[in-house]
Amino acid sequence: MRRTLRTRVGACLLVGATLGLGATPAEAVPAAGATPAPAAYALDATLERQLGADSAGSYLDARTGALVVTVTTDRAAEQARAAGATVRRVTRDAAELDAAMDALETGAKITGTSWGIDPRTNQVAVEADESVSAKEMARLKAVAARLDGAVRIARVPGVFHREVAGGGAIYGGGSRCSAAFNVTKNSARYFVTAGHCTNISANWSATSGGAVIGVREGTSFPTNDYGIVRYTDGSAPAGNVDLYSGSFQDIASAADAVVGQALRKSGSTTKVTSGTVTAVNVTVNYGDGPVYNMVRTTACSAGGDSGGAHFAGSVALGIHSGSSGCTGTSGSAIHQPVREALAAYGVTVY
């Protein structure tokens, strides 16, 4: 919950989804995260609409998997309980967290930083990568110090970057990406991927220098990070995600990720990795422009995974954007919420 903190402007062979070019052998939170019941997504979305500014976000309880909704008023607490959610009273309301995000945007928009809402601690969680200098860290800390504990800062290894790589998988403009999900509109077939990928090229092939399989029909980066490619090779690919084990995960619906939940990422470089959602409403300050309203996770990723699928069971959650790298099994994969991309292009998963 609390996914829209400010107005946003405008804003790959399919390894997240199967291209249909022939089958391919298909408080601290535990690393595994919680698994939400299907109804939790709907409850989260409903309460977000109903409670508005009286809630500072929601998350999944790491032990029980129950949806916990943070509230700042008695009225909101009554509404959330009546809807079936667990309620937690917090001191900082949505406006205060919004103000903290705005202060960071104004005073500490530093390449190599990201920030987003962690409703578990009722704070804005800031990460600064290795490229952030001591002088820039001092500036960041000075901004945070004026916000009365609403912001916490952590150093992370590596450098935040968009994860495009040369060679392999889906090719466009001399670069390789992954793709997220096959989608449809009026019987036409498309796939969605990262906007910083579709910015590179209008034409996409399954092999380097190979025949074009799809043509770009939309792209949005920076601000957002999504794009859409229409299949032009006459294929009718299945609506599933490659698990790189000889099997595939069918995708039946799309939802917004909830802090504390477990998910998986499928990408052409690191294949399938797992992680936990740790923050929503995330701003990432890449070197070539910021992206807003993203989701931060602990999944591992690497160059070439850009555009890949973030999902939980049969639910599509996001389009892989970037990360600061991966240490062991602990990563920092960022995704663009897929529902926003689906709405922008008027398409649906299938």
From TrEMBL:
One GO BP annotation of this record: proteolysis
Segments forming a coiled coil: none
Leader sequence segment: 1-28
CDD domains linked: alphaLP-like
This protein's UniProt keywords: Disulfide bond, Hydrolase, Protease, Serine protease, Signal, Zymogen
Similarity-based family: Belongs to the peptidase S1 family.
Annotated protein name in UniProt: Serine protease
Organism: Streptomyces fulvorobeus
